[in-house]
Amino acid sequence: MQSFTHLITTRPHEVRQVLISDLHLSPQEPALVQAFLALLDDCLALPALKRLYILGDWFEVWLGDDMYLSLLKEKRLEDERQAHWLTPLIVKLKKLRVAGCEILVMHGNRDFLLGQPFCNLFGGELIYEPYNLIVGQQNYRLEHGDALCTDDKKYQFFRKIMRNSLTQWYLLNKPLEKRLAIADRMRQKSQKNNANKAAHIMDVNDVAVRQAITASDALLHGHTHRPDIHQATTDKKRYVLGDWRLLDKNKRQPKVSAVIGAVTENDDDDDAEFSLVEFTCNMI
Fold it and tell me: Which sequence spans correspond to the domains of the chain?
């Protein structure tokens, strides 16, 4: 595994695509937000970058696009919009899109209510799993990863209900205050349930992985917070992206670390290569 500090490499012109997952951004964790902004600055500095993939759980919780879009409707809310923690992200993402980099966003289990209207603010595109990514001569299957955790029967039942369009319509038509209360209750219940679950139950199921990878050459996902390269079958690999973590919280300069994906391609040939990369960002 390579190690990038601020995505600076010895061959920045070869980085074509960047894939990230499980940032869990929120105003309660400003260091993670700043690290994401730092990554976007790095992406802007990569001369040949074509795509940025965000493969779910971009946000710790997302209760509907109107959380932010409502600030755009009235001039009296302009100051509130400018001070909102999401505004710098949107500004930077829009710069990246104008620079020619596509921004593709997938739902996770924390932000399944994220919609295309919010993505439109920066020219992004909402994509759905499974999503196929061609790397050289290989076909990679991209997904968030929670659907592969089939041993967790209770969660899969919950996932089926929450991904239903009628359920989402019902939630989005609730006042924001009620959505906040519902989300808080769900989060507390989830934490309590997970504390009593065996670790293997919350990881992917081998049978589900083999079924998912049948028509692909490789599988790439996040969700489990267990970054690694696994041998899914005798000739196919499963790549797991890592969550974004704040390390050394009590030190003078804490650090944010994550395992992300990078697709590189040499200008001299058409061969492309995918690799997992340790991204680190020292916070000031």
Answer: 2-282
Produce one character per residue of 49-82: b if its CB has 16 or more CB atoms within 10 Å, e if not: bebbbbbbbbbbbbbbbbbbeebeeeeeeeeebe
Full DSSP string of 206-226: HHHHHHHTTTSSEEEE-SSS-
pLDDT single digits (tens) 75-84: 888 889 899 9
Q: In what order do the strands lie in the sheet with 218-221?
A: 131-135, 138-142, 218-221, 237-240, 228-231
Angle at 99 between CA 93 and CA 102, to 5 degrees: 60
pLDDT, tens only, 22-36: 999 999 999 999 999
What tokens were used for 102?
Answer: 């596509």
Tell me which fold the domain 2-282 belongs to.
Purple Acid Phosphatase; chain A, domain 2 (3.60.21)
Q: What is the pTM of this model?
A: 0.92
b/e string for 175-206 if b means 16 or more Cβ within 10 A?
A: eeeebeeebeeeeeeeeeeeeeeeeebbbbbe
In whole angstroms, give the CA distance from residue 89 to residue 149: 31
Residue count of the chain:
284
